[in-house]
Amino acid sequence: MKENIKCQIDKITNEIKKIIPAEKIYLFGSYAYGNPTQESDIDLCIVVSENIISKRDILRLIRKSLVDVADFPIDILVYSKEEFTERAEIGSTIEYKIVHEGDCLYEQ
């Protein structure tokens, strides 16, 4: 992974940790799997311990806070811990692939 992308992902991860109670943050998709192209976006999966606020509100907060931080397109998935854990046990789901092939950037 190019150094500028890694630095960007670190900045994004740190910003997310400041604004929401993330339990885990995963990088998945082409950057995690080692095959990004010029059109690739940064794919993140955020697992929160509780449903304190809605996923929509979490996404809104994250996107607002990343306006001045992110230089690359970002795609974000948000799950409660229970929902993510349950779906990650099913071999045909994106959540399973995230756990087994993605990079855990942060774990509380």
UniProtKB/TrEMBL annotation:
Residues 9-98 form the Polymerase nucleotidyl transferase domain. The lineage of its organism: Bacteria, Bacillati, Bacillota, Clostridia, Eubacteriales. The keyword Transferase applies. Coiled coil: none annotated. It comes from the Bacteria. This is Nucleotidyltransferase domain protein. The keyword Transferase applies. GO terms for molecular function: nucleotidyltransferase activity. Pfam families: NTP_transf_2 (PF01909). It comes from Caloramator australicus RC3.
